[in-house]
Amino acid sequence: MGVELLNIRGLEKLDRQNPVVMVNLMRFRARSLDGDGSGWDAYLRYSALTVPMIKARGGTLLWTGEARAVALGEQAGNEWDYLALVYYPSVNAFLDMMTSADYETQCDPHRKNGCEDHVIIATTEAYSKFKIG
């Protein structure tokens, strides 16, 4: 886990100038690895630092929510605690944030402390009721 797992090659296949919505799937640790509260507590520290970085790059947090149950598909491997949809005006904006020294040193440690697993899926819009901008 971590910035070292950032799939640069996969993202380079996308049009790096086009908007992207990142679907974040998170599974939290019972206890933060740094001993400071729960995994959720560490994630809240991560979010407090990361959201301003997203906004500084023209992005925004669209939606977050708790994962309640697998409604279709295999339960095994799909037990997530939380989801977030995050808009970036371009793939480049996402990459800029994720590869910044501030993200690596200030944000990512909290993410690693709090998340047992964190998957981010890059999506491009086919249809949306969200109005961005």
Q: What does the model show?
A:
This protein is α+β, with helices and mostly antiparallel strands. The chain has a single domain, classed as Alpha-Beta Plaits, CATH 3.30.70. 34% of the residues lie in helices and 24% in strands. It has four helices and four strands. The chain has a four-stranded antiparallel beta sheet. α2 (39-56) packs antiparallel against α4. The longest helix has 18 residues, at 39-56. The relative contact order is 0.30.
Mean pLDDT, all residues: 92
CATH topology value = Alpha-Beta Plaits
Q: What structural class results from the helix and strand content?
A: alpha+beta
Give the total of beta strands: 4
Note the topology:
Elements: H1 8-12, E1 20-28, H2 39-56, E2 60-66, E3 82-88, H3 91-98, H4 101-114, E4 115-123
Helix pairs in contact: 2-4
Features:
4 helices, single chain, 133 residues, 4 strands, Alpha-Beta Plaits, alpha+beta
Summarize the structure.
The protein has 133 residues and is α+β, with helices and mostly antiparallel strands. It has helices spanning 8-12, 39-56, 91-98, 101-114; strands at residues 20-28, 60-66, 82-88, 115-123. The protein has one domain: 2-Layer Sandwich (Alpha-Beta Plaits).
